[in-house]
Amino acid sequence: MSISVAPASAQAGPRPLTIASVPSGHVYVRHLAPEGATHEARVRRLPDPPPRVADPEPGQWWPPAMLDPAWVRAHDFDLLHLHFGFDALRPEDLVAFADAVHDTGRGLVQTVHDLRNPHHADRGLHDEQLDALVPRADALLTLTPGAAEEIRRRWGREATVVPHPHVVDLRTMAVAADCRARRRTGAFRVGLHVKSLRASMAPMRLLPTLAETVADLPDAVLQVNAHRDVMEGGAREDVELRGWLRRAAEAGRVDLRVHDFLPDDELWAYLGSLDLSVLPYRFGTHSGWLEACRDLGTTVLAPTCGYFAEQGPVLGYEHDEDHVDLDSLASAVRRAHAERPRWGAGIDERRAQRREVARAHERVYADVARAHGRPVER
């Protein structure tokens, strides 16, 4: 996918720009830098400050301390780049945060990842949050042309389109590609991951048709992975889903795997074992899960809602908040089984893309910093 970036007036020089990135440690943000240490010559991201909660988990960055106006005023940086983490804040809190960034002479950059929050059943709060942030950002980025067009339509703002970089590390991608090339036998494995049931997920709309379709295909298995909090009386327990999955597993129609949150190495091994990953989303915008599947050579079956199909080559079926076309779902599964498409992203492609993504961010940062009088060497 091409990157549409307006040419910057000049490139950032040897003085590193200090970026307060919200967050910094998330894999998406880490992969905005090119491989190696040369990125430090142009951009330096502050580490995530400890969240102001009791007993944070190792590596926890949420809720982000950087969104507190007092933190903004007390720390030195050139500009702030907001990605995630504002879900629970009131719109007026976000206005105060943006004002603090500007009052202290710094610029605000926002990457609009979600135009509809996948965790919110009702879109009202997220819309109000974006109404507070998007008009106040000095520069906007997003991941797909469709999202950029929606931003233009809703706020009259232009967003630079920069594609999602790889999620899986390049070494693991290489191992996964080798394993897939050597795998010549075994069932065609269709995966549906219900995880901890985000509000955007509607697995029960799909599962009966998926099970019936896969059962009619030779040498095919439907695998469903669920977290324990969905299946065993946890915070996201779904009685209907749990009952259906247990009965289907007992009847041999579903290979059911129940587990806790998977560490990355186990998650990548699981995704790499699938031939087709079905996204059960009824609303949303973009997907890191989709990108991880592409990294591992797993074909994705994505809904027509959001802009998932613009992220890369996928199979599609009709699904949004109000409607699902189960015939299109079954047809896509049968096509995947018959054609075995291999639409993953190769290592060379991801490596080159990552360099372009890093350069695009450097140009945006340099332009915003100059506009706010921050020194950037030519």
From TrEMBL:
Region named Disordered: 38-58
**UniProt xrefs under SUPFAM superfamilies:** UDP-Glycosyltransferase/glycogen phosphorylase (SSF53756)
| One Pfam entry name | Glyco_transf_4
Keyword vocabulary terms for this entry: Glycosyltransferase, Transferase
- The domain of life for this entry's organism is Bacteria
Per the record, where are the segments of Basic and acidic residues compositional bias? Answer: 38-47
What name does UniProt use for this protein? Glycosyltransferase involved in cell wall biosynthesis
